[in-house]
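For consistency, the fold was encoded as tokens, which produced the following:
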Amino acid sequence: MAFYAYPTPRLLLQAGASGGLGYANAPKSSLSDAISGSALYWKAKAELGYRFSPTFSILANAGYSQLLGTEAALYKGISAGIVFNLGLDKLGGGSSGLSTEIQKQQSILPIVYYKNDKTPIAYLNLSNGESAEIRDVKVSFAAGAYTSREAECGAYPLIRRNKSVVVPIYANFNDKVLGFSETTKLQGDIRIEYKILDSQRSASKVITVVFNNRNAATWADDRVIGAFISPQDPSMLELSKYIAGLVRVHSRPEIDKNLQYGMGLFEGLRVYGVTYTPDPTIPYVQARKDSSSLAYIQYPYQTLSYKSGDSDAIALTMAEALESVAVPAAIAALPEDVIVAFPLDMPEAQARTTFSNLGNFIYDSGKVWVPLRASMIRDGFLRSWQAGVELWQAHAQDKTTAKLVQIDEAWKEYLPIALADVDFKPTKPTEDSVNLAFENVLGRFITAEVAPKVDRLKAGFEGAGTGKQHNSLGIVYAQYGLYAEAKAEFEQAANLGHLPALVNLANVAFLLKDYETAASYFEKALATQPGNKAAMMGLARARYELDAYAEADDLFARVKSIDPVLAEHYAYLSSKVDVGQALRASSAAADRGGGMTWDQEE
């Protein structure tokens, strides 16, 4: 039986006692008879030691022992000595007196691998079972090729003997984990470095890390969609840039460009063959009910490859297509379905005076959004739009449910994932099929927008209509790209002596790229109204397209002196602005092909 204590980390006190049956052989003496055989004994001992290091210490000891006979002690005496203790088992670092236990370990989502340098993958209960306090404790983690470097998990100046700390385990995982297409286990190593009595020691703990597949996510935070949408996805760019190019060729300059890109991309994906198919394992509706459960979310390249997906997959695919051509996108993950939305290029005030039905939009963050119900892609853009509006309105009163998650905002929390091992190129639909789909949807949209406006204007006609009334009707037609109808109305207005119709006839010629005719009409308007800003700016634009840059520059300067705000929209006309400003102005003027100023004055 022994007891020991450490009054200080370097001092050792030890006391013990023992006894038992031993063999004795003692000759006859003057004090006792000879004895040979078994005898009882007992002894007690005390030690005081100083530890220079965990492997070397000096101990002074003293003890007392007795060997007992049948009547009296055969032997008794005091002993003392000095012991040099060399711990051979601890040379070279030796075994550790630390105990380690993993706690609160969870499986990891590959899509947020980069967050584990701040979000623990587990917790380590670290107990100091050494014979003294330990100092300068450092805990780190690495997992071979799947980590870019060791992660520093914790540093503790002092952990006293028999005390413990709970250490959060962080990891610097790299994008290799994005290769996990199924649940995967890998081994990591927790390394603990510390000092005991100024001697450097180390210990390690092997931990098995479980990764879910790279499609795994939860709907606990809707912003997680940002991880699945990459504007640089080569599979998407192969298709979206192709469709956007066709839209650009066939677009109407006076119709909102984002609206036309949205129409073209949605119809392009439909023509490509994307269909709505609920996930057979975990349908979106089911996953949405329990936001803590794992859901399977397809990357857009997978949706393009399979040509099908659940509503969330189709919404993300459309959102990525929009973002890849610089049109912002947003997602609203509602209980029944997912809405994908994009904003008009025009400001809200302009939208409210442009469109017939203001209820067809979502007004959020100072923008006017077009909502599309993703699952209705086979029904086409216009029906999907109407269904998106109805679904949004059904939840609009519940602000916790009806919320738009803008993709650029989601990226601030969840970085877009670019998968390096994807080698898929979609087969592009034919130009004719995309063009036909785009022209059809744009035509139906224009008819739906123009018809009620035309009816209202014609209902107010005085007889056959005044020049002003025909001019107003012509502007409605022109703003929706119905140039033949617009030209007829402007000509009638001009014949009735309505001078602004000359500017508008020039605008139509400009939009049709007949710049000579446009310049002629603008000059006629200026001859009768020398101060007409719309005619002056229009003539500057026509001269610019005819390569008469000096005249365009002079006309632009005259407009700028009269109306600086108007001139700012067409700064590309001036030789006295920097390239960046000119490019921004060019964009504001609808790539120099639109942005016309329609004249409605007397």
Notes: Confidence is low (pLDDT under 50) at residues 88-93, 577-591. The domain at 460-588 is CATH 1.25.40.10 (Serine Threonine Protein Phosphatase 5, Tetratricopeptide repeat).
